[in-house]
Amino acid sequence: MAVEERDPHSGFLTTGHEWSGIKELNTPVPRAVYFFLIATFVFSLFYWLLMPAWPTGVSYTKGLLGADDRKNIARSLEQAEQARAWSKKIETADFAAIQADPALMTIVRQSGRTLFGDNCAVCHGTDAKGSKGFPDLTAASTLWGGTPEALMETIRVGINSGHGESRTAQMLAFGRDGMIPRADVENVTAFVQSLSAAPGTFDAAKVEAGKAVYAANCAACHGDEGRGNAELGAPDLTDKAWTYGGDTQSIFNSIWHGRQGQMPAWENRLSPVDRKILALYLADLRKPRP
Fold first, then answer.
1. What per-residue confidence (pLDDT) applies to 45?
2. What is the residue range of the signal peptide feature (predicted)?
């Protein structure tokens, strides 16, 4: 086969190669390919001149523009730190001063909502109202106190968390462990429910019998009037905020089987400033809105 053979349809010469009757044409490279190759080379040349590019052993060519990503990142971090100057104010100011500063409290509500959503909402809900087994953090009464100082400490050490300074609390299993008979559990259940219900809602005889059982077994933690003890983490039984449910069966189960809640310690997970913001945010949630 002659190398100079020309394809009759396209007019291009063939290369002399043929496969199964198909001949290879010696077509020229499209001009666009040359154009882009040249453009790429010119761009590369200018880029090498303008930007850091070539290693020189111990350093590298800096480029005519003097671009430096490390300096750019350092500048961005410095700008971000300046934008977060408020964090220093929150870190150093006391709780009362922060709560009295509308600008800082606006930041607390914004940042606190994000921190709460990222770390706490999975248990306590996005509205912080909790669910069965997880307390309502907007309730009037709060275990270990609802002041920002008390809340920050609870966040730091957790509850039954294994932290060396953890808050510790446990509701005894009065029925399961045979501490009081079933009848007494039923009576004290009625009495506890009566503390937050309208008068006359429960059997008067059961309530009266339960009052004596309560005084002998429960008042030491929950107080003579059932208003709880923040130092012990014993909840207020006179309000309608129930962690495990306020119906008859739920209260009976709590007294019979006992309870031991758990909250992780956040000391090694959140910075002191973040814990302070969270405490202020939660304390703010408990305030009635005008």
1. 92
2. none
pLDDT tens-digit readout, 8-37: 888 788 888 888 888 888 888 899 999 999
pTM here is 0.68
DSSP-assigned letter for residue 63: -
Please provide the average confidence, as pLDDT, over all residues in the chain.
Answer: 89
Burial class (CB in 10 A: 0-12, 13-18, 19+), 184: buried
Domain 182-257 adopts which CATH fold?
Answer: Cytochrome Bc1 Complex; Chain D, domain 2 (1.10.760)
The dotted CATH code for 85-165+263-285 is 1.10.760.10
Strands 22-25, 14-19: pairing is antiparallel
Three-state secondary structure along 214-252?
HHHHCHHHHCCCCCCECCCCECCCCCCCCCCCCCHHHHH
For residue 207, give both structure tokens.
């309530």
The answer to whether the CB of 264 falls within 8 A of the CB of 160 is: no
Rounded Cα distance between 185 and 250, Å, is: 12
| Residue 165 contacts residue 174 (beta carbons within 8 Å) | no
Considering the chain, tell me which residue range(s) the CATH 1.10.760.10 domain(s) occupy.
85-165+263-285, 182-257
The CA-atom distances, in angstroms, between 285 and each of 108, 140, 244 are 11, 10, 21
Q: How many other CB atoms are found less than 10 A from the CB of residue 217?
A: 18
One-letter amino acid at 109 equals R
Give the C-alpha separation, 122 to 67, whole Å. 44
Give yes or no for a contact between 280 and 273, defined as CB atoms under 8 angstroms apart. no
Cα 225 from Cα 64, distance rounded (Å): 80
The pLDDT value recorded for residue 276 is 96
Q: What angle do CA 257, 222, 245 make, to 5 degrees?
A: 50
